Amino acid sequence: MNTIHKDGFAARGGWWVAVQFPLLLLAYLIPGWTGQAITGSLAPLQTYAGQALLVVGALITFAGVVSLGRWLTPFPQPLPKSQLRTGGAYALVRHPLYCGILFMAFGWSLYTNSLAGLVFDAMLLVFFDRKAAREEIWLAEKFPDYVVYSQRVKKLIPWIY
Predict the structure, then answer these.
(1) Is residue 157 a part of any domain in this protein?
(2) Greatest extent of the chain over all pairs of C-alpha atoms, in Å
């Protein structure tokens, strides 16, 4: 097992973290600022879909946090003594924390009926996809089994992507 771990904020992927937190705040605020009343025959469906995504996202995020346990870090570089997780939430998707956050963001935008929020969430999806790509380089370096795992389990959206 390779134990490469670079010290320092930037070397551990700190800029990804620095950008992530304002993006998460905006994912919450933009739908609140731009949301509109939901009208029409599909209003209940949109409301329920938004609520379902919020709940499922929260559950996936919680399961990911529990699965990682003491190895949880906001940095994309894994901790030196961390172990590869492939069970629990990690059997569903390779990046359950990003997945759960994205589900909650899209759910919130649907629930508040915010087109601007949905557009922002699409950009947030691209951000997490790129952050995950960087993280996966480090994971493949550290864990020889990561490549096989990544071929078996989807990256951000269970069974889809």
Answers:
(1) yes
(2) 57
